[in-house]
Specification:
homodimer, 38% helix, ten-stranded mixed sheet, alpha/beta, 15 strands
């Protein structure tokens, strides 16, 4: 079973309007509600792949209850810890021209709730084969939260995949996760300077991560692993909505880790699954049949020592 | 006790952002949550005035539960009927330049829930001195819903104030409410042609309403009543946010009806309370001290036969 952790879970709302007009009033013709936050998205993709998964994290208030209801409706098992604060919403307004997003800040989490979560997490480690830590931290959760959870997972012998940004990423990498998946911006922030990607992924390993995969949008993935370094990509970038592609990629990497797949196979799966999310009509959804088709088109090449 | 009915209650969210940028992603710095819908707003103003009130209507799902929680937090007694559908949200994005609104459509209400609501309403009529019917109808509620509720209230001897638009207004007026409060646009829609206001208010009486008050924004109110016709206004329009001014006006008119205030006094209260809402820093809030101050400035003049 793969355990995903989402400390700042969200209720994702997508509003369809004919045209966004600042200063105007819009009757929303269509409202889509989804449980969100990076870890939740990873869990939903894993569930779609038929992979046993439990989504945990923090969820509070009526928004938190709605998040749990929507996960249940999607068939995703969850073990969220209840908190007193109200979980955040995200609102995306989609019109013909594009998408405009509004991100609520999320709740403030008191120390006692963070302590209670660590206890819950330790219990769940007993049934987990891989842990995925993904997304932003709400107020009140310390910046070393992922480092602390990585320490607990290492003590329990459960490998960890980390997808984070800023200080939680920096402190998390230093705690020795098995795999970290930064995008180009997160990589530059982590290293403090622009570094060409194959070298950058190797430097992340030197900072503490056992292995690293950098995601480069339409240019695919670069992996620095114990079995060597690889670049994986589709022959040309796909048109579509990149929302959720990173989460689909993390889901494939976590599954590959759980099944001890050879690295080239993991990268083929990850590039194809991310591509399947880009091409999906609904943001963040993946299509298993499209994933299977796209796998045929992914190329994986060893990266020469740079 | 004044009973307010809100058949399409809402969770009103106000997001503060530095500047709305279409196509961009915005971190919301401040989120305000409020129970909303016209009848709910009227109930909150009446409660602020110290007037005994019960808010009823339809509320469903986690959003409906949040609406009831927020009313409870404001101290407003409520007797909402639960429905299976999810109550709607409204999102207002406020930046330095103004406010941009997104209105969810609201739930679809099956016939059985509408039948159950009428039973609940009939029960509540036993303790009500005035009923306020205000706002839009959700899908599934028939256009003559206000007409039906007016019939039930008349049978119970409880006077009704109606604030609606379109067919629900037209059918409601024909059912003989004690007072109807259209704004200029609703008045024009109701009469089917532009009519100068004092005459228009009289024509609404001829359509079935016992009395009518037309709200003209900064130009104040025009009332066509059994005691004569009146115009009430402040010496000059107030700067501020007109959101909620109409609901504050309806609250004052319902209170005046409950206490059988002389019409000039009701109109002074209504203009001053609407003005207090316009000048409030929070949309729709009223200030009792500002209301008292503004009352000194309202002029009420009889309207000559036109």
């Amino acid at each position: 079973m793969i355990l995903t952790v989402t400390l700042n879970a969200a209720l994702d709302l997508t509003y369809r309007v004919p045209a966004l007009s600042p200063g105007g009033t819009h009757r929303v013709s269509d409202v889509a509600e989804r449980a969100g936050g990076k870890g939740v998205n990873v869990a939903r993709v894993l569930h779609a792949l038929g992979e046993p998964v439990i989504a945990t994290g923090l969820a509070g208030g009526r928004t938190g209850e709605r998040i749990r209801e929507l996960l249940a409706a999607d068939g995703v098992p969850e073990a969220f810890a209840p908190i007193a604060g109200e979980s955040r919403r995200t609102v995306v307004v989609a019109d013909g021209a594009g998408a405009t997003g509004f991100w609520e800040p999320g709740p403030a989490v008191p120390a006692a709730e963070w302590t209670a979560f660590r206890r819950r997490f330790t219990g769940l480690l007993g049934v987990a084969h891989v842990v995925v830590l993904a997304g932003s931290l709400p107020d009140g959760i310390p910046a070393d939260a992922y480092a602390v959870l990585i320490g607990l997972a290492r003590a329990a012998g459960v490998p960890v995949v980390l997808d984070a940004d800023g200080d939680p990423l920096r402190l998390g990498v230093a705690a020795g996760p098995d795999l970290v998946k930064p995008n180009a911006a997160e990589l530059a922030g982590l290293l403090g300077r622009p570094v060409p990607v194959p070298t950058a992924a190797r430097e992340v390993r030197a900072l503490g991560a056992r292995e690293a995969v950098a995601s480069l949008g339409g240019a695919g993935l670069v992996a620095a692993t114990v079995d060597g370094d690889w670049r994986a990509s589709l022959p040309h970038p796909l048109d579509g909505n990149p929302t959720g592609a990173g989460d689909a990629c993390v889901a494939a990497l976590a599954r590959g880790l759980a099944h001890r797949q050879p690295w080239p196979d993991r990268l083929v799966d990850a590039v194809a699954l991310a591509g399947s999310a880009v091409a999906a009509p609904v943001a963040g959804a993946v299509s298993i049949s499209r994933w299977r088709r796209l796998r045929q088109a992914v190329t994986v090449c060893p990266v020469q020592e740079g």
